[in-house]
Prior knowledge:
This protein has helices at 13-26, 38-45, 49-61, 80-104, 107-128, 135-150, 156-176, 182-197, 200-220, and strands at 35-36, 65-67, 73-75. It is mainly alpha-helical and 225 residues long.
Amino acid sequence: MNDGMHIIPPSTVGESAYQKIRSDIVFGRLPPGKRLKLERLKTDYGASVSTLREILNRLHSERLVVAEGQKGFEVAPVSIANLREIAALRQLLECRALEQSFRSGDMEWEGRVVAAHHRLARMEDRMAQGDRSHTEEWKRYDWQFHQSLISACGSRMLIDNHAAVFDKYLRYQMIALSYRGEIAANEHAELLECALERDAARACEVLRRHVAGGVEHALATGTIS
Length: 225
């Protein structure tokens, strides 16, 4: 993920443009169904048309962009069925990673988890007070907290696959502007407690409730059909 998530250092103009476009899709700045015209993208992201074609094909392989034959590309649509599928996959991957991470995590891992939760909790307090000016920052902290929980799992492939799925789940939350307030904040606090107690079974139970609640709350906004 970009903007502090799942970062690959942008060593080239193409990589930098890829990360910016991907971030704009995930955070909803490029909304579902938007036509991605190469000339406009060239102006907005400072990459050549040939580089942009490569980027859009890469995003197509990640199912964030769809190819419309000779018509070009557009941002992938959203659907209730797709959200539920993504949520189920997130639960599966994250629970597996939590179990491994809780077994292997050391004091440094605990420190990362506590620090990540502190940042998220502070931002959730601001959101609870009605401040919606830092929505993207809130979701970055959310991502960082969940990533810290699984960061000791010992599998780069599992972490990368989880990050890719989490990004797709996050996209739905951003489209729906879904914030569950105190309920979600309490679930995050429970996950922190489970991590420090190394209670993976309870953590997975909390996570399933957390993700399911997020899905239903997003759907209740009526912005996803």
